[in-house]
Amino acid sequence: MEEMLNTQTVRQAWRAYYEADLGFWNHWYPAAWSHEVGEDPKPVKLLGERILLRRIDGRVWAIEDRCPHRRVPFSAKIECYTKDTITCWYHGWTVDFTTGELVQILTEPGSALIGKVRVKTYPVQEAQGLVFLFLGDIEPPPLSEDVPPGFLDPGVAMAGLVREVRSNWRWGAENGFDTTHVYIHRHSKLLKGARRVFPLGFVPSTRYAVEIVEGPGPKGVIDRLTENYIPHFEASIKGTVVSARVVPNPRPVPPPTVSMWLPCWLKVDPWPVEDMIQYEAYVPKEKNTHWYWQVLAKRVESEQEAMIFREEVSALWEDLALRGFNNDDIWAREALEDAYTEGEGWTKERLFKPDLCIVEWRKLASRCNRGIRR
Amino acid sequence: MEEMLNTQTVRQAWRAYYEADLGFWNHWYPAAWSHEVGEDPKPVKLLGERILLRRIDGRVWAIEDRCPHRRVPFSAKIECYTKDTITCWYHGWTVDFTTGELVQILTEPGSALIGKVRVKTYPVQEAQGLVFLFLGDIEPPPLSEDVPPGFLDPGVAMAGLVREVRSNWRWGAENGFDTTHVYIHRHSKLLKGARRVFPLGFVPSTRYAVEIVEGPGPKGVIDRLTENYIPHFEASIKGTVVSARVVPNPRPVPPPTVSMWLPCWLKVDPWPVEDMIQYEAYVPKEKNTHWYWQVLAKRVESEQEAMIFREEVSALWEDLALRGFNNDDIWAREALEDAYTEGEGWTKERLFKPDLCIVEWRKLASRCNRGIRR
Amino acid sequence: MEEMLNTQTVRQAWRAYYEADLGFWNHWYPAAWSHEVGEDPKPVKLLGERILLRRIDGRVWAIEDRCPHRRVPFSAKIECYTKDTITCWYHGWTVDFTTGELVQILTEPGSALIGKVRVKTYPVQEAQGLVFLFLGDIEPPPLSEDVPPGFLDPGVAMAGLVREVRSNWRWGAENGFDTTHVYIHRHSKLLKGARRVFPLGFVPSTRYAVEIVEGPGPKGVIDRLTENYIPHFEASIKGTVVSARVVPNPRPVPPPTVSMWLPCWLKVDPWPVEDMIQYEAYVPKEKNTHWYWQVLAKRVESEQEAMIFREEVSALWEDLALRGFNNDDIWAREALEDAYTEGEGWTKERLFKPDLCIVEWRKLASRCNRGIRR
Predict the structure, then answer these.
(1) In this structure, is residue B374 part of a structural domain?
(2) Structural domain harbouring B207
(3) Which of the residues B106, B111, B374 would you substitute to probe the C interface, choosing the one with the greatest number of C C-beta atoms within 10 Å?
(4) Contact map slice: B 153-172 vs A, CB within 8 A
(5) Do residue C183 and residue B107 have CB atoms under 8 angstroms apart?
(6) What is the ipTM, given to two decimal places?
(7) Cβ atoms of residues A176 and A278 within 8 Å
(8) Whole-prediction pTM
């Protein structure tokens, strides 16, 4: 199987993925937590674009963060005379936040350009406490096509973090979805504290171990670690035995199902405990940096239960899982960046059997994306 | 008129200006204040060139700041054994500061190269307390061709500042000459303290509002704000009124005449008060940085009056006008840099009627420059 | 003679040298002091390559510092389960340090890739307290071909320093070998303290002053300063006399013989005192930085004498010679970097008679190197 993973043919099959330095075009991306977007415009940067978010009468709107006149960022100095317009600090050009239309120029009131010039606007949707933007040129498909299955289920509370990581977004995806990167987590307190043991690695039992989902609905690849993978707990190097069993009397816990979805979503189900799911998104910011979204989800019966869950995330899981455990992943992505930027990762990498899922993800992403961001 | 400003034809007409990242060649530029140049060589950088200035028996001379041997900067460690030579710290090559000629090599006295090698020299002229250099390959035209009209008038005292600004020189020119950038100054203490009010913007009354001057003598474009421009003091955005009248009982003061001159000079007359003129030069240093010259001028009857004026500039106008007021301009230029370097300002800018003067400046500069610095 | 040094023909003759930004390929280079390499792997970077050194049962081995799987540096987090293997921190790929062979993958024990994948290994040799690596693709010639004559002599003790200098390696070579750069040292305490005087410069007496050695054995160029060079102690600039005689009653000491050897070695014999030799190597690290090796050598009769010599170097010569005197050279190389990188050194340099030795070194290096590092 290793030969199959390292041929020129398979590399051709992920060409689009290889070119997607700045991610895929014509997709929905998470841009901010809902609670971060209020009546003061908030600048964000996704896929290399400067964007401004603002909540008007409860609804969130998004426009390009560049004045159509001389292209300066509005956000360099924000000036708003009404709740639904923004005025450029430089020459007073004023655009409507909901339509992007130029509605006034303070320095030349009644200019002939009014109504004839507009800035780009972005379709916005709020769901599960997140603000999503559509970056593309086509009629946006439903948001449900661009998030993992179950993400939009009602009766689910969500909480978590978003931070910037200094690596290309693909190293986020490939690290999170990789079934042998568990090796880097083997001494994690999250596992030891729960008397849990991870194997050194999970190896696919056949070349069909990875399930491919090409829609309708979300498009992704699924690893059912319990069913189609063989865990390895021990290996020896020239007679020296290396064992994953670093805690006494480990508690048997079945491994989660891990899946990767277009445009950039990971789902780990269940994780970090049996009644929770961890979603992650790796959203391109610039070529060498991405937004790392970590979202924990739990089924709840009431708003009170939701509130208790959010407090639990903040008091416990943020330290133990989202930072304590996942900071190792961040470190690994940044180390991979060097190999694929300074080094010659793309041409010299040598994949092994457990990289099957990464190869399938690269192929699916190349086949099913709606465009490449140039 | 807006259509006229945004055509391909007009863009062709400012092609040379677009290419002049490092400014125009074969022009005079201010390089230092006279009082800064003494008997110790002083290094400066203009239009990407390293240059060394030195005063010898009262007169200022300029040579290239690179030893002809291995091209190291003399200024890395200055060594002068006579008042009119400089010796390279590395191998003792010694050149005459007035001719640029190699006159000795200390490490090989009497070398055959003596008298056969020279460094580049620059024509120098002092006027109004400034040292001017000619950067080019042709016989220099009179200095008076490369400064604004009136600049060399006798009986005028001058004082001010020069500082480095982190933007291309053109954003200095386009900000200073722009008749609607006054919008950024509307809350300035300089105005409020004088109970003066600026309009939100000045809009040209016709397409002939800008006066074009193509010599003989200086070449430039003139905005007579009092005559050919309509000031706007109020505008409304969806019913919300924005007014320029931010002080009670404003004092009526006619606006100045503003003009822009090759290679890179602005003249604001009168400014900041009725008996003064402000000159500004935006001298390219590197592609992304320029020297910002701010020179206040006043007619005086005697050297004593001149001295009083210079003290007044230092005690009052430096804080209130040159820094307090103009620091807003510096900030704006730096914000524009991002739009035209990271962003796509040149291709995506959308000009409006008051940009007429900027378009005329770009066209005149493209038509009348003596060369582009490559 | 000056004309001869500045022709197009002579420039063609050093083309390979001009292209050797990252040094020459298929040569031996010093990589570390022997005492720095122990049982913990030590990362180094030479000629742009990341390499890992390790001592196993007394012998030093070297492998490429990149995991063959995803090309991350092993050294980002070193993990060794046996004394002769290294395990990648990311997915547990484990290679043998002596053969470079993949011997195990902890996350997929028994993988089909074992024995089929290997990392690059480098030939290693220890001599005179230094660890040498061969960087190239050919069967390595004897180490004695790539060090100055006498360097491997038995009965010689060696001690010194290695540091990183922020310039291309060639400015190290050209500064060290240059017979007129002594000008920069004329006020050095090392000389004054010994009542020694250097001339302002040494000028070759004929165009055959430089001895060319093209093997068998080391290839290099030799300046016998005592025999073929004329020292100049005085020169005048427009009547002002500049003299090298800055100490009273200077002690007459014959100047050393200075030579430069492929791939990047300087030999100064004797220096800094009559019974010592100073060797220097300028080993490319990246394009704009090199390792500066300073090695003092002295003939000794016993290990006890060797120990006393090493203590003397550390207590006295390190401060006085290796730092005090040679820090001026480091400064000069860094100043030359700017001239050949920002500036136009290669095309605009104008060589003079004493640069004969530099020209001969450039020509020999271009003629006799075994390849250029790309």
Answers:
(1) no
(2) 2-17+142-368
(3) B106
(4) none
(5) yes
(6) 0.95
(7) no
(8) 0.94
